């Protein structure tokens, strides 16, 4: 008899939901006026850390700093994040500024500089105004607390072109002990699989070995952050950090047992939720566009097909126009590089307004254009393609392509 899945309980909060984590925000005046633009995450206990970073060859200084710390540095105590300037393509000076940021946090918090991670998002090529950065760190340190409000303030402070802050938290039981995983992220443009212009910070009070923490994150991003796209551009600054301080007091997870599976399921819920929040807040978008490939021969085949559809500008424009232009979807599947028989594909559109089959075995069926438009006019729209080759499936998330996307990116530096 199969074991019942352990229930995941969604709770309020984000990075401060887990035991022992605090956050703060400050208005440092880095680029924006009249809003907070720096955030600080702090753990009362040292954290085991895992990270995944941009695949772009051009990597920002904070990415290089964090890679060194995550893969070979001391346990983490804090993360300092700034919005407005990316600290990318800034040479040795940019690396020195990472060190200075970490040292400022170390002095303010009484921890080692090697235990401080840094992250930046914003305009590429500009140097950070270090006096403002260091002043921001000093201002945030005494404001640190574990309230949900502090976590929400931190999630708002890291926004750039985002229209809303993004956070989530969930509680599960591991070894009979309540454990929390929470997170926050930012991301709206320059979003593309492997990964996107995104910063994501996930915190947990679970006790788990570093090896399994890293494996859980590396495995999970394949079906979460790697499955979203807004505009086809891969950033220089993409960073996902997962910090575990062990303060929940659960029996430490050191092997792939039932507790590990439960932890991975909870982590997937957090990461998928954050990923979808980013895709649904794509620059200028009006709808979250979800693509499900079912009946695939392999998981990888399904992933490739799903990502090809959500990255198709013609398909994204059709979703914006609420137009059931299914030929664009089949075309995007056809140039994906994955092999399938187009004469066996069934395609459906679905949303809160209903479900409608559009093609059967690669040919259009008689359907109501009015009903299709109604379905495609919802804020969340799904296309489901069954390629009838096996049992594998995958889901990707994107958004529609609108006039406002061009407007936002035409004057991003202004």
Question: What does this molecule look like?
Answer:
This protein is α+β, with helices and mostly antiparallel strands. The protein has 2 domains: 264 residues, L-amino peptidase D-ALA esterase/amidase (4-Layer Sandwich); 123 residues, Roll (Ubiquitin-like (UB roll)). The chain is 31% helix and 27% strand. The chain has 11 helices and 15 strands. Strands 1, 2, 3, 4, 5, 6, 7, 8 and 9 form a 9-stranded mixed sheet that branches. Helix 5 links the parallel strand 8 and strand 9. About 2% of the residues have low confidence.
Question: Nutshell version of this structure?
Answer:
This protein has helices at 61-72, 91-109, 130-140, 148-157, 210-220, 258-279, 299-310, 313-320, 326-334, 369-376, 403-410; strands at 9-11, 21-26, 38-53, 76-85, 116-123, 166-174, 177-186, 199-204, 239-244, 288-296, 346-351, 354-360, 363-364, 380-386, 392-399. With 414 residues, it is of the alpha+beta class.
Give the domain tally. 2
Please give the count of helices.
Answer: 11
Which runs of at least 5 residues are low in confidence (pLDDT < 50)?
Answer: 190-196
Mean pLDDT: 92
CATH classification class of the largest domain: Alpha Beta
C-alpha termini separation = 62 Å
CATH fold label of the largest domain: L-amino peptidase D-ALA esterase/amidase
Rg for CA atoms: 22 Å
Strand content: 25-35%
Subcellular location: Cytoplasm
Protein name: Arginine biosynthesis bifunctional protein ArgJ
Function: Catalyzes two activities which are involved in the cyclic version of arginine biosynthesis: the synthesis of N-acetylglutamate from glutamate and acetyl-CoA as the acetyl donor, and of ornithine by transacetylation between N(2)-acetylornithine and glutamate.
Organism: Clostridium porci
């Amino acid at each position: 008899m199969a074991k019942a899945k352990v229930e995941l309980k969604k709770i309020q909060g984000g990075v401060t939901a887990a035991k022992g984590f605090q956050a703060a925000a400050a208005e440092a005046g880095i680029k924006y006026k009249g809003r907070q633009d720096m955030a600080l995450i702090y753990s009362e206990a040292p954290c085991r850390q895992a990270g995944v970073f941009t695949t772009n060859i051009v990597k920002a200084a904070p990415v290089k700093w964090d890679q060194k710390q995550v893969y070979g540095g001391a346990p983490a105590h804090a993360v300092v994040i700034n919005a407005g300037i990316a600290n990318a393509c800034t040479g040795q000076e940019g690396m020195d500024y990472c060190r200075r940021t970490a040292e400022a946090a170390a002095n303010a918090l009484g921890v080692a500089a090697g235990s401080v991670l840094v992250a930046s998002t914003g305009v590429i090529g500009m140097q950070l105004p270090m006096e403002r950065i260091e002043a921001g760190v000093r201002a945030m340190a005494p404001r640190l607390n574990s309230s949900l409000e502090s976590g929400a303030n931190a999630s708002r402070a890291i926004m750039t072109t985002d229209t809303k802050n993004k956070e989530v938290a969930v509680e599960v039981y591991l070894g009979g002990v309540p454990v929390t995983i929470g997170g926050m992220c930012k991301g709206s443009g320059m979003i593309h699989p492997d990964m996107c212009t995104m910063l994501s910070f996930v915190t947990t009070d679970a006790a788990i070995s570093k090896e399994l923490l890293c494996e859980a994150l590396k495995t999970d991003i394949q079906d979460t952050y790697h499955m979203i796209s807004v505009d086809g551009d891969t950033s220089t600054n993409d960073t996902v950090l997962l910090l575990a301080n062990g303060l929940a007091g659960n029996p430490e997870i050191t092997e792939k047992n039932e507790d590990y599976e439960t932890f991975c399921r909870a982590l997937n819920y957090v990461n998928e939720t954050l990923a979808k929040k980013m895709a649904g807040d794509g620059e200028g978008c009006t709808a979250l566009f979800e693509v499900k490939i079912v009946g695939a021969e392999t998981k990888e085949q399904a992933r490739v097909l799903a990502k090809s559809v959500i990255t198709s500008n013609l398909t994204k424009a059709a979703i914006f126009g609420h137009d059931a232009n299914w030929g664009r979807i089949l075309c995007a599947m056809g140039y994906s590089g994955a092999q399938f028989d187009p004469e066996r594909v069934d395609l459906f559109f679905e949303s809160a307004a209903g479900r409608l089959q559009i093609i059967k075995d690669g040919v259009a069926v008689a359907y109501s254009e009015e009903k299709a438009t109604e379905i495609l006019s919802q804020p969340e729209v799904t296309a489901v393609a069954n390629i009838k080759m096996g049992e594998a499936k995958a889901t990707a998330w994107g958004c529609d392509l609108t006039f406002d996307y061009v407007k936002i990116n035409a004057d991003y530096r202004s």
